[in-house]
Structure formats: C-alpha cells, structure tokens
Design a protein that fits this description.
The chain is of the alpha/beta class. It has one domain: TIM Barrel (Alpha-Beta Barrel). It is built from seven helices and nine strands. A nine-stranded mixed beta sheet has the order 7-6-5-4-3-2-1-8-9, sandwiched between helices. Helix 2 links the parallel strand 2 and strand 3. The chain is globular.
Length: about 230
Amino acid sequence: MIKAQLHTHIKGDPADAIPYTWKDLIDRAKTHNYKVLAITCHRKIIFPAKAISYAKKYGILLIKGIEIEIKKKHIIILNPHKSAEQIQTFEDLRNYRANHPKSFVFAPHPYYPICSLKNSLEKHIDLFDAIEHSVLYTKLTTSANKKAEQLAHKHNKPLIATSDCHLLKYLDESHTLIDLDQKTQLTTKKILDALRNNNLQIQTKPLPVHKATKIAALLIFQKLRKMLSMI
C-alpha cells in the first residue's frame, strides 16, 4: 500500500495565508512516510520545479493540482492543464474534461456549510471521478461525511480521505492508502488510474472536539489574514 495525501496547500496560495513552504510540506510528509503528495492551491497551479526534484530525493511523487471554484463551490483537479485556472462554470468544466481526460476531478468537503458543492455534486456527478471524506469532523458531527459516503456508494465513485492541509501539524490526521506495491515505480498516471479503479483504503477517524474547533478557528484566521493583506 502507498500512503498518499491528495489535498494540501502551501505558501503563496491565493485564498489563504499559509505559513509554510513547499519544502516544509515535503519535509513533514517524509516524516509521516508519504509516497504521494498533491499540491492543490486555490485558483492557481503552484508547482515549483525545485519541489519535484526535492520530493523525488525522498521517494515522494509530487502531483500537480488545483482547487478551482465554480460559484464559490470548491472542486479539485489533479494533473491539471494550465487552462483549469480559467474554469468558471460547470459547462467550462465539462468542456475541460472532454479536452483533458488525463486530469482527475474530485469533490472536496462536498456537504460542509461553506465552499461546498452540496446539491450541485449529484446534479453534475458525471464530471467527478471521486468524492472526498473530509478530515474536519467529530463523533458528534458525522452527517456531512456520511452523506458523501452514501453518494459515493450510490454512484459507484471512489471515496478518498485527505487532510485538506492548511496547517502542517495536522497533515497526517486523514489520508488515503493506494493499493500499489511499495516497489512500484510511481507515476502520476499509475496513481490516478488506481484511484479511478477504487484500489484504495481511507484512513480517518473523528477528531476530538477541541482539536476540530481549533483547526476550524485557525482556518478562518488564515482566510481573514489573507483578505486583510490584499486591502
């Protein structure tokens, strides 16, 4: 099994004041034995060439990604073409998928209160390769993830777990194990093919209430800090 983190953000993200660099992220991923790491900043592809070679030194495959927005609803594209930055409507996404079939599209935190697809996900389910099981939940707040699980089962879509990492301390709270041999020479194609075929296991557990509250508060602070820096 290959340990993968498929939803992370780094310094320079246009939407959030992320305090750590790509190097910090890779270093932390190494300590947690990740072999696959996707950088998925908001609205912009940030994927430094130096980061690819740096990750490779530690046996980590770095995957390009982006978290786009359609009417403030978030969508993640792995292995995106540059044109993904221009997507503004679901029709744009449909045309993009037709022209770039090697990209992998999944729905992050689809039933959470803000920045989520909600009913738009099932309405456009054919545009999505997978659905995310969100890290931010407790034993008392499981309904959003349960709804995501039910929709994934209904439409035979893979369910993937991520940390949606904005805070390095919590990188390893939730992740996905991909069913590939440890000796496999990893490529983006092999990883995305395995995800599409649902050859995976999710590793996740409810957060203590105090930890979930702290993470939510810090995420709000990052967003506000970014907004204030742009005034």
